[in-house]
Amino acid sequence: MQDYKVDTSIHGEVYHLVVSTNQDHNIASMDITCSSERITSGEQDVLYILSLYVSPSHRKKGVGRWLVKYGLGEMMKTFPHVRVSMVDDMSSSSLYDRLGYVPVSPHGPEKQLNLSLLFQ
Description:
Layout: E1 5-11, E2 14-20, E3 26-39, E4 42-54, H1 63-78, E5 82-87, H2 93-99, E6 101-103, E7 110-113, H3 115-118
Parallel strand pairs: 4-5
Antiparallel strand pairs: 1-2, 2-3, 3-4, 5-7, 6-7
């Protein structure tokens, strides 16, 4: 895999990442946010991937997986005990399935990431 350059910025509560190649072409981007949710045992930080985009010419080359691992790895430095969730819009379902997302319930669109599978 070639070298990637990642530019990060924070807009309000959203962590924005843009990936480019050595030729300075933007090839992928991702937005992540964090919120606290009340669960029966107290509060838990939850990271949500708000958007993930990989340019068509770079799909199926590992860029999306690399970006998710990089972005979540950076966020987990601040929030080490998190749950990572997303709402599956079906357009990128196969990528999320390969990353290790599993349905939270059999009838809903929310999926949760098994972090141990992602960081193997």
